[in-house]
Write a sequence for this structure.
């Protein structure tokens, strides 16, 4: 999948910018606060329907203007897709895919797939579990409409059940309502659990050889799913009956606790996973270098995973990561370009890209929201 053309109008610090991207490597150089991340953010926004930096789309509107517009011309093998998105300060929002108006933003998912890698991602294994759930959600929602649907239904059940628990008075109508929402929680929670378990197994399959390459073949990588925050292992032959029974049994045990704390304490909203290197939890015992290699191996595995599911590599967005990585890890990233993955990579200095230039056909400089093509 390739982004051929990109237009930004009143988006962040861009006034008007139109860019024809190279199908291979695109190097974007600029000092701090010039608009490098903003540019990648625009692609990621068209890909996922949200920004990785703000939960409010209105933050994306260029200050002192009344709305922004984004366009991407995407090529998916032999197919061309046009995406147009605009948002006005008056809350008027319009999304068009191939000229057809789409009411829901989630229509974007799967149209332009991307993997974004930023220095903050280096916290993926060290940071809080919410980070890892978000990672799985963003990746899986792009490639699987079933996943997205299941996640939305689960979140709805969770919200309703939590609302009910907050005002629970123990009366019969409340009890019946609680049972209803518990049924929904279990139904979609079980499906979500199974989808995440399978996705992690598939990711690990690709991350393992990646780590071999990055670390010189010394370490074995495993991703271990921790459903609902518990040290449960369902194994490869995981099935709905087994997960449902376990879910119900734990819910039963936590029943009084949930009433006392007035919130749902069991379910995928508490999911986590750990990464083991040679059977040792990298989060607790890994060096910083090992953690970085493991994150990189997992992020690179996302590309293979998405290709496996969709038949096409996503677009790779690398924001300012080179200065954070040593030579062997940079080399591993550079290898991706040879696999024909369209890459947009940013950095503050041209010399970060020594060894990369020969592979690229687009080098641009970004200054104060203006992009000038160098090569
Ligand atoms: N909505 C906005 N309107 C105008 N400028 C913005 C907006 N949001 C951020 N900026 C500006 O964009 C610049 C940061 O751009 P960014 O892409 O993060 O920089 P970098 O090149 O370091 O990645 C800052 O100067 C910031 O003030
Ligand atoms: Mg930046």
């Amino acid at each position: 999948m390739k982004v051929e053309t990109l237009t930004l109008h009143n988006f962040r610090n861009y006034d008007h910018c139109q860019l024809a991207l190279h199908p291979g490597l695109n190097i974007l150089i600029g000092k701090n606060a010039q608009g490098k991340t903003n540019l990648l953010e625009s692609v990621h926004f068209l890909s996922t329907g949200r920004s990785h930096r703000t939960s409010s789309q209105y933050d994306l509107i260029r200050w002192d203007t009344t709305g922004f517009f984004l366009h991407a011309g995407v090529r998916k093998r032999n197919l061309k897709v046009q995406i147009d998105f605009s948002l006005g300060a008056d809350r008027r929002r319009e999304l068009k895919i191939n000229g057809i108006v789409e009411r829901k933003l989630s229509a974007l998912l799967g149209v332009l797939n991307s993997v974004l890698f930023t220095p903050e991602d280096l916290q993926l294994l060290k940071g809080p579990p919410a980070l890892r759930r978000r990672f799985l959600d963003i990746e899986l929602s792009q490639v699987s409409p079933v996943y997205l649907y299941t996640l939305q239904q689960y979140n709805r059940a969770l919200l309703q059940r939590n609302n009910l628990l907050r005002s629970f008075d123990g009366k019969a109508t409340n009890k019946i309502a609680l049972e209803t929402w518990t049924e929904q929680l279990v139904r979609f929670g079980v499906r979500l659990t199974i989808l995440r378990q399978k996705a992690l197994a598939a990711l690990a399959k690709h991350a393992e050889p990646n780590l071999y390459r990055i670390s010189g073949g010394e370490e074995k990588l495993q991703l271990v799913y921790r459903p609902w925050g518990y040290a449960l292992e369902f194994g490869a032959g995981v099935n709905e009956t087994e997960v449902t029974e376990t879910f119900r049994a734990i819910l039963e045990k936590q029943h009084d606790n949930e009433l006392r704390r007035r919130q749902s304490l069991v379910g995928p909203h508490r999911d986590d996973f750990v990464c083991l290197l040679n059977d040792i939890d990298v989060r607790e015992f890994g060096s910083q270098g090992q953690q970085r290699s493991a994150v990189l191996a997992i992020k690179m595995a996302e590309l293979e995973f998405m290709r496996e599911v969709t038949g096409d590599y996503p677009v790779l967005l690398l924001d300012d990561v080179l200065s954070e990585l040593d030579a062997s890890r940079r080399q591993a990233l550079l290898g991706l370009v040879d696999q024909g993955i369209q890459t947009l990579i940013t950095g503050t200095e041209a010399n970060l890209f020594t060894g990369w230039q020969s592979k690229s056909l687009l080098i641009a400089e970004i200054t104060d929201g203006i992009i000038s093509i160098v090569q």
User: Anything to note?
Assistant: The domain at 1-113+312-375 is CATH 3.40.50.300 (Rossmann fold).
